[in-house]
Design brief:
about 290 residues; alpha/beta; seven-stranded mixed beta sheet
């Protein structure tokens, strides 16, 4: 099954972008109009997050989200067939030079990322880094072995490495012992596990449980941490700006880094709500009904 699925992904990756977006438009009709994939979850999340918006405005965001979501699927599947020139043309990195200088200090770097824009394309950031100091993407293993192997391969296409979330501390300690450097990309905008909840904030008008693991690791190792600000310029084109959150995390107050991250993410979502991943139950532990 894996080889069949892998061959299909390879075939899709060879298609030119205009054809991919035609497929995306068709998929949108199926996913949104016909199947209604997680529409109830998306609709509820939007209505609680934007109390000030009318029903008409919420429906417009909803439709734009599903269009972006379908684009994201095909843009991700395109990665195996993209050249380095092509990906760097479509994903522009801004203000990344100061981050690399931390390597001269013997420090790794944390990248506070989120399910916003096209986060899958940010794996290409490794192309700007020394080959022995790439981006290490922290991920949660998929239950389906076929999809897990395909996603793993896609995310390492441009030199990035993957570390399973349960192994992150052990890997970081090992890298520090061996004198290895890199950048740790950590998605931190989902709902944390019940047993991991230790901090709440108000986010998009709602009491929200916050993933604090990135902050805890940054403070433990005192590695600088940057916010990954993604923006969609137009269909198939994005920018990625790297903004410092804390250069000396040990000097910050507890949860200050997590709070700053949530405020920056909230700002991005309010500026362009359609390109955040609304289809997950992010408030399953905290939403009052």
């Amino acid at each position: 099954m894996y080889y069949i699925a892998s061959a299909l992904v390879k075939l899709i990756s060879w298609l030119p972008f205009p054809v991919l977006y035609l497929l995306s438009d068709f998929t949108y009709l199926i996913v949104y109009r016909l199947v209604g994939y997680r529409k109830a979850v998306v609709r509820e999340n939007l209505s609680f997050s934007f109390l000030e918006k009318s029903e008409k405005e919420l429906r417009k965001i909803e439709q734009e989200f599903y269009r972006h979501f379908c684009d994201l699927i095909f843009e991700s599947l395109k990665i195996p067939g993209m050249s380095e020139k092509s990906i760097l043309k479509r994903m522009k990195y801004i203000d990344y030079e100061p981050m690399i200088k931390h390597y001269d200090e013997g420090k790794c770097v944390f990248l506070h990322t989120s399910h916003y824009g096209n986060w899958e394309w940010t794996s290409s950031f490794s192309l700007y880094l020394p080959k022995d100091k790439p981006v290490y993407q922290i991920y949660k293993k998929q239950r389906n072995e076929v999809s897990n192997r395909i996603i793993y391969k896609i995310r390492t296409r441009f030199g990035a490495k993957n570390i399973e979330v349960k192994n992150i501390l052990r890997e970081m300690l090992s890298m520090r012992k061996e004198g290895k450097l890199g950048m740790y990309g950590m998605l931190s905008d989902q709902s944390p596990n019940w047993e991991s909840i230790n901090y709440h904030t108000t986010f998009l008008n709602q009491k929200t449980a916050v993933i604090t693991g990135t902050e805890q690791l940054a403070r433990k190792f005192n590695y600088p941490i940057y916010y990954v600000r993604l923006a969609k310029v137009k269909r198939g084109y994005y920018t990625c700006t790297l903004i410092p959150i804390a250069l000396n995390p040990k000097e910050t107050k507890e949860y200050e880094i997590s709070e700053t991250y949530m405020r920056m993410l909230e700002e991005d979502i309010r500026n362009n709500p359609a390109i955040w991943l609304w289809s997950h139950k992010r408030w399953k532990f905290t939403r009052n009904r």
